[in-house]
Amino acid sequence: ASMASTTVRNPSFSVINSDDIDYFKKILGESGVVQDEEKLDDANTDWMRKQKGSSKLMLQPKSTQEVSQILDYCNSRCLAVVPQGGNTGLVGGSVPVFDEVILNVRGMNNIISFDKASGILVCEAGCILENLISYLDNEGFIMPLDLGAKGSCQIGGNVSTNAGGLRLIRYGSLHGSVLGLEAVLANGTVLDMLGTLRKDNTGYDLKHLFIGSEGSLGIVTKVSILTPPKLSSVNLAFLACKDYTSCQKLLYQAKRNLGEILSAFEFLDINAMDLVLKHLDGLRDPLPSSTHNFYILIETTGSMESHDKEKLEAFLLQVMESGLVTDGVLSQDINQASSFWRIREGIPEALMKAGAVYKYDLSLPPEKMYDLVVEMRGRLGTEANVVAYGHLGDGNLHLNISAPQYNDSILSKIEPFVYEWTSKQRGSISAEHGLGLMKANKIHYSKSAETVKLMASIKTLLDPKGILNPYKVLPTSLLSHS
Ligand code: FAD
Ligand code: 2HG
Ligand code: ZN
């Protein structure tokens, strides 16, 4: 089932030798040069355990200057490099395919500045998302993004994947909240774009090239990000709907009636719920009196508890009376709220425990989204468990197909069908996880030939030897150095 099985190592890349190691030790010291087998084994293996590289070297620089020296050297030696953050990526983008050098900025984890008046945080790219969340919590602020991988993922990785997550419906994507960044190009050039301005229309806004480029254009070393204030009133409802149409109508109503306090709108179907309850310890069904086909999590965030409660309760009364919602519960305290979130955020982990998983991350018109799930169940019958959940409020379906083992019969029933179906709806084959290795050759399902060609020209301009994250994002056949 390896995604790399058809990829061939680019022969123009060098193989590391002892002179290279000596040079890296000279600039980084012993601690920055990792050759320990166990550590390399982890760094060579992706979160899904689907992809395994054979890198013999991981570098851990402590400054932008060191990143620049590393890349300058790798570029001149034609050594391929994989930028790696928390290694929580889900498309095989963060691990080597062959023997690429792994570059991890985990040692660059300082907060550079935080301005309480504006809420602008400037930090190094290796900061772990959860640490930033805790830091800001003390200051009375929150991060504009939140996701299940927060305990491991780095802000540099989040920016490089343009991670969406659970709050995008409220705070928008990182293309909006990232105000500036610093990046190092393949030849070691440091690009200082670390502005902290809300508005800056002085020509092309090149930072956007690095947001979501999955380490293929440069290493993100610093980030400046706009953070929202932490508001005092957060409420979470766990609701059940009898059918998908009701979920959609509920979203429509929530946007109208909860308006400015709506901060998350997530869905999971019964298959996802069953899987979580079966594989994760210590979780209980919040609505145990009967089974339901669909579950919705609605979070509200506002500044006045009494106002928010009144609004939310009136909304819930209305949607229960009209039959859109068949059952529901409001979390009573922070522990209950986190157990509700754990159900939703724990689905990827439960899927891993259940066995093999084929993962698709699609943007689709919400009214069509669940048709795909139903069709997929028809195609697979009892061969696999089709699990659907995701960021319904953003039109993002996480379609996961779970089976005891990987096998070609299952795969042939899923692909290319799932990509063709998505393309026909003018959807995206990657809403938020990126293309990585898994979908580099599938890009044409979502982007026109002319667009992909221009992307390849930009890649070649910024990284002429193609040393940065090779075999990922773009089809290798389009790159001039291949
Ligand atoms: P990695 O996985 O290490 O790398 C990801 C990509 O970014 C790779 O291509 C890598 O080369 C590149 N990269 C990493 N750091 C840098 C850098 N400093 N400079 C340049 N390139 C770099 N994603 C969502 O969008 N929304 C979710 O809700 C969500 N939930 C998740 C839940 C779980 C449990 C898991 C395991 C993953 C989830 N993801 C989600 C996937 C998501 O892509 C990652 O969690 C996160 O954004 C990646 O950060 P990371 O530091 O782990 O990067
Ligand atoms: C989520 O929203 C993540 O939980 C992971 O993006 C999605 O596992 C997945 O398919
Ligand atoms: Zn997601």
TrEMBL record:
> Mind listing the UniProt keywords for this protein, alphabetically?
FAD, Flavoprotein, Oxidoreductase
Report the cofactors.
Answer: FAD
One GO MF term? (R)-2-hydroxyglutarate dehydrogenase activity
Enzyme class comes to oxidoreductase
The EC number(s) this enzyme carries: 1.1.99.39
Tell me where in this chain the FAD-binding PCMH-type domain is found.
51-230
Q: Which reaction does it catalyse?
A: (R)-2-hydroxyglutarate + A = 2-oxoglutarate + AH2
Superkingdom of the source species: Eukaryota
Say which family it is in.
Belongs to the FAD-binding oxidoreductase/transferase type 4 family.
Record protein name field: D-2-hydroxyglutarate dehydrogenase
Question: Which species is this UniProt entry from?
Answer: Penstemon smallii
Q: Which residues of the full protein are shown?
A: 88 to 569 of 569
